Known about the structure:
Radius of gyration: 24 Å
Oligomer: single chain
Structural class: mainly beta
Strand content: over 45%
Mean pLDDT: 88
CATH architecture of the domain at 2-140 and 189-215 and 247-260: Beta Barrel
Amino acid sequence: MKHLLLLLTFTSSFIVVSQEKLQLITNISGFFEKEIISNKMSQVYGGGGLHFGLRFIQDKGMLDVTLVYQFSTNVNYYADADSTAFDGKYYHYYDSNGKEISSYKSLLRSHFIGASIKYIFRESDKTTRPFIKIGVLTEIGSNYKNGYLLQNGFIPRLDPYATYSYPVTPPDWKPKLLYYYSDLYYSTPLVSNLTAGIDIRLIQNLNLNIGVGYGFRIMKTKYVTWNEGEDYREKAKNIPTKSVYSHMFDFELGVSYAIPMKSGGKSKE
Length: 269
């Protein structure tokens, strides 16, 4: 992150000193990420982002250097089902109270900050132009620290796992709880992506951006076992984290607006 901020500072200084056409650029975007070739390919995330930075206009393209804020949440999760029904097309799952379990529920919600560098090819008067973008983010806060995760899938889970013993002689035939266990969410120190897409001019200075690409995530987790009545969060404090590496397919849709900074050059964007 430190190296990226240094790069951002250097690039911004270079733009100010050496170029004629400089714009402020803002962007609002939404994204969808699906894990593809790691773990159990279970993780799915969605959310939105705000970008603010500088645009450097060249003869054959333009460079955007922006600071980024992003909100992210899980899309899918896991809950133990007490019963199942099939309606001829789909399976429906129900909890112990008879309530149907939803396939989607926002449990893990995180805030990220970072930076991105985007290069848009072709002259600024073209209606449609390809672009390539690199972004790096780090989590600054989450509501789900020490939340339960599905083992090896690393998606939010409503309840921890439990291990029981099963007596085989009377008088007590009931299972006896031995202990609970679970992977716990700790943080996401890195979210990075490489995106390629199309920039479409809607009106002057207002553009639609559509992109797809590859994303890489590092999630920090902890594995904890505890007995009934123990505070698993206290036990987790003394357990080291482990890193979970995830490869993602990214889709992004956004709108950007450019604000000229110099009266001497009219923008054709």
